[in-house]
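In this section we walk through a basic example: taking a raw amino acid sequence and producing a predicted 3D structure, encoded as discrete structure tokens. The instruction is simple. Fold the sequence below.
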Amino acid sequence: MQISSVEAIPLEHSLPDGHGLGDARNFGHARQTTLLRLETDTGLVGWGEAFAPGRIVAATVEELLVDDVVGMDPFAVESLATDSYTSQYHFGGDVFLQSAVSGIDIACWDIVGKAVDRPIYRLLGGTDCESLDAYASTMYYTEAERPPAAPIRDAVDAGFDAVKIKIGAGTDGDVERVRTAREILGDGGRLMVDMNGNYRPHQAIETARAIAEYGVDWIEEPVPPENASGYRDVTDAIDVPVAAGEAHYGRFAFKDLVDERAVDIVQPNLGRCGGLSEARLIAGMATTENVAVRPHVWNSAVGVAAAVQFAASVPDYPHSRNVPEPMLVEFDRSENPLREDLLETPIDPTGGEVDVPQGPGLGVSIDEDALDRYRLDE
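The resulting token sequence is shown next.
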């Protein structure tokens, strides 16, 4: 079996004027991503996601990857990430190359799973896993006026008892947002906060200490991803676990996070980190050093499916029968038809839990009509 064709499919959903949403850094006005469709000479089709703008991904695939991928045995999928550092020597660490490799890698795993009639999480070494806990990403900063309590109430009403909120625009405002979320979530709910790298270390430390009384499970990206010494300053100064990884790409960047004890939790995004193959290596490095793994998800439905399959494969080490900190899968609560409409059977987190698809490969089927509605090249 060989890959006979590779297609990059740019997707976009624009938000209405005045309804941008985002984090403490800025507002976004569109949801963009790229699907990779691979077909084999046997007729099997695999889907992956490159979490980057479509036209850039398409050009990267055409210029740097297509000649090596067409004719490739999809069972050789784990060679892709390594080859991206060697055959593309000067570009191996580039985010757009790693994103494109991620999409192709996921699509290859989808094909392999279909060929052997197994879900990807079992191919990655996972044991039987029917469902995973989900946490709601919510309380974004928005252009349109909305009471900050409303999205937390919506998440709790939908059955979530774990949420992550956006902070990072000043300590006073951070405290108010965390206090509001904790009041609505209740004492027993899990609460995480995301600063999106908008602080210097002393600012992140100030906020971390100010919100400590509200029982935060982790602080995400307290400083910019390139500020390695800042991560060490923050982790050394506070007792709350620190998480990062959505803006890190490939095994070497994650190895630095783990080796330097810069974080307590690594968060690879399957559409950027190098795909399932690199995520598998990253999880191995992290668990070996007793660092937790929680995938970052801000993707379309294909990226969500990949994250669920990956999360289901990550071992509970060092826990045995009792798992005081179970795996959590991020589920963005903002409106996103690229997530909600692209699958014939959407992944449903209602009740704060997601079923792990047990079908072959990713275990999902693309809704071709929805795909046509959101593709940019039509």
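Looking at the output, two observations stand out. The chain is about 40% helix and 20% strand. The radius of gyration is 20 Å. In the next section we compare this with other chains.
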